[in-house]
Amino acid sequence: MSYNICMNENKRYPFSFTPLMLALFWTGLILCLAGFALTAWRFVVFLNEGGLSPYGWAQYALLFFACLVLAVLLVSMLVRSQYVIGEKHIVLQLGIVRVRYPLKDLRHIHLFRGSQKLALYFEGEKPSYAAVVIKSSLFDEFVQELLSRCPSAEFSFSTPEEENEEKKKK
After folding, report:
1. How many whole angstroms separate alpha carbon 160 and alpha carbon 58?
2. Residues near 53 by Cβ (< 8 Å), separated by ≥ 6?
3. How far apart are CA 151 and CA 149, in angstroms?
4. How many CB atoms lie within 10 A of CB 63?
5. Could you write out the DSSP letters of every residue in 76-104?
6. Together in a domain, 73 and 121
7. CATH number of domain containing 106
8. Distance between CA atoms of 160 and 116, rounded to whole angstroms?
9. Both 119 and 153 in a single domain?
10. What is the count of structural domains for the chain?
11. Has residue 25 been placed in a domain?
């Protein structure tokens, strides 16, 4: 009996959040927890007063739901934010939110060495641009993987001096 082994050929690169973004995520989670606790406390008071109002029930249900949904979104972004390079697409996954870019539309990859930024330029129905936010130590591996899957894409880089000259021109 033969088995087909399906290997996952997708390469994953974790998203790199700035300390400010991490602080905002944690602040959001703390606010979700505080909102949930305050809503629970007020709901108990509502029930002790009789809790007969359908408006009150709907209000507390919506508040609990909003706190939970926001907390799930924030946790999912903290836990599962990455770039996935597949056979036909590069996917930016921010928690449960996904954005797909077709590799066939990738035209140019540019590394800004001065600012340590990596940019992808796409053509197609909607020309677009994507900034890649990963650790700079993974840039080379990321670019090599993209170029191996999309050999028609061009790669370039600019030095810090070239970037400074470009800023002076503006």
Report:
1. 57
2. none
3. 6
4. 17
5. HHHHSEEEEE-SSEEEEEETTEEEEEEGG
6. no
7. 3.30.720
8. 9
9. yes
10. 2
11. yes
Same domain, 112 and 143: yes
Place of tokens 């290997």: 7
* 75 vs 46: CA distance, rounded Å: 30
Spell out the residues 6+ positions from residue 57 whose beta carbon is closer than 8 angstroms to its own.
51
Determine how β-strand 117-122 pairs with β-strand 106-112: antiparallel
- Structural domain boundaries enclosing 75: 11-79
Tokens representing 4 are 């087909």
CA 24 to each of CA 14, 32, 143, 160: distance values in angstroms, whole numbers, following the listed order: 19, 12, 30, 30
> How far is the C-alpha of 150 from the C-alpha of 107, rounded, in Å?
9
d(CA 107, CA 125): 13
Q: What is the Cα–Cα distance from 170 to 158, expressed in whole angstroms?
A: 17
Residue 43 token pair = 């709901």
Q: How many residues does the chain have?
A: 170
Residue 147 lies in a domain: yes
Beta bridge partners of 96: none
The verdict on residue 88 lying in a domain is: no
**10 Å Cβ neighbour count for 148?**
10
Q: What is the pLDDT of residues 36-55, one digit of tens each?
A: 999 999 999 999 988 788 89
pLDDT tens-digit readout, 66-114: 999 999 999 999 999 999 999 888 999 988 889 898 888 899 999 888 7
